[in-house]
Amino acid sequence: MKLEKxxxxxxxxxxxxxYLDDRTPLEKITRETEQFFTAIKKDFALSEHARRKxxxxxxxxxxxxxxxxxxxxxxFGTKVExxxxxxxxxxxxxxxxxxxxxxxxxxxxxxxxxxVGDGETDCTEAFKKAFGAGAVEVKVPAGVFVVExxxxxxxxxxxxxxxxxxxxKLHPKASRKTRLLTNRNYVSGNRNIAVEKLTLDWNVERxxxxxxxxxGGNYSSCLTYAHVTYGWVIDVDALNxxxxxxxxxxSLYNYAGDGxxxxxxxxxxxxxxxxxxxxxxDGLTTHHxxxxxxxxxxxxxxxxxxxxxxxxxxxxxxxxxxxxHVWLSDNSSTRCFGGIEIKAHANSSAASGVHISGHxxxxxxxxxxxRHIGHHKKEDPESRSAFNIRAQRLVSIEPIETPLYxxxxxxxxxxxxxxxxxxxxxxxxxxxxxxxxxxxxxxIQYRAACVLLANGVVRDFTTAGADLSIAGGEQSAxxxxxQNLVSLASAEQAVTVGRGSELVQLExxxxxxxxxx
Length: 517
What we know:
Blueprint: H1 12-20, H2 26-40, H3 56-62, E1 65-67, E2 78-81, E3 84-87, H4 90-103, E4 106-109, E5 118-122, H5 124-131, E6 136-139, E7 143-147, E8 150-152, E9 156-159, E10 166-170, E11 181-183, E12 190-201, E13 223-226, E14 228-239, E15 246-249, E16 260-262, E17 267-272, E18 275-277, E19 284-286, E20 290-295, E21 298-300, E22 315-319, E23 324-334, E24 338-344, E25 352-362, E26 366-372, E27 387-397, E28 411-416, E29 419-429, E30 442-445, E31 449-459, E32 468-470, E33 478-488, E34 495-497, E35 502-512
Parallel strand pairs: 4-6, 5-7, 6-9, 7-10, 8-11, 9-12, 10-12, 11-13, 12-14, 13-15, 14-17, 14-18, 15-19, 17-20, 18-21, 19-22, 20-23, 21-23, 22-24, 23-25, 24-26, 25-27, 26-28, 27-29, 28-30, 29-31, 30-32, 31-33, 32-34, 33-35
Antiparallel strand pairs: 1-16, 2-3
């Protein structure tokens, strides 16, 4: 299978069901996953004495930080609407969208303020006049509208004529720091903002052959929501940003250390049908924000130019530093470093409370990569925040090596340092003619704990060392359960368990030599 840049992500649910060949109702799968998570979950006691001494830089960042708590204050669960798993709080978001419509006092066309979609005229002032103080719906007709960067006030709905028809393009003289589209006030925050049915072109070509396309921090992206409560991004395409296609974040990225997170995060944001390519770092990312829902979306072919060549951690979907309670449903990725990466840097709290229901990863280097950098080795402090991932209906097709990150071994799944991880109903497919160099197709490693994999098939990793490796040694995994796993015409070893790994339970592991069931 090959996915193109223009892949329609609203087909993802059907493709995932076809690959899994599983007619179990989604409601039943979802409750089953919750039961697995409850069975594996453990409350870890984290000693205050285990906290690493703060560096001078982390002390400075701590003035802009607040304590990181793992638990969901609202205890929101997952429900099934039609054929899709969604967060229970989506009802609240739907009510706020209706409130946005009722609050709008003006419905205008940006052409009436002087905008010309000829791909040359600077239309920035026309958009500013159209937005005014908010409480407005601004329609943008077909055409290419050049802007120097737009800032949306609260209670604003920006609507185009469709992806590829309405294009907002960054001005040739815009600085490398420019965010093409963002909200107006990062300090006091904004609320009830919707962007729909258009394409965002960051126009990276204007920078020429510059080595690094991003300016650091949360600059240089196509769309940035920072300190936004109740936001929507629906059917929007993003092209060639210096950093991210879409960034749902706090006012500042925060590096005050594990156990703290940035203040003024975004809350209750839904991105549906968003797509992107050519991104310098990640397609979609979240930082220090809560209650984010991403559905029916697709990212492919990053440039990786926000990083040094060959060291580009460019993911299709990244749930990053300090993020909590994020739902990902029926998305897809291709030719990225990671399809979905749930992580944090060493000097920040890890993302926690992540729910995945349906993802199609094709030719990513690491389809599903869950890790807290700097908290893996024996001498590292144990992560205070890397907890609680529920995932179901995962499909990984032929992970491969990538020039984005040289030397990174292709894998369908890696779990490092995270605890309380339940993965249910999955298919990992290798290429029988590809040289996987005796590396495992999937790995539970580096002090991961309380991990359960159930009801999965791994096939065609014929040159891999194992379909699943559970690490031993000084960075051993512990309390790992694997049940109902089928190894089909795949690696010589279905599961390998390293010496020193603790409390590993294997149940109903079956090897089959052909695709005949």
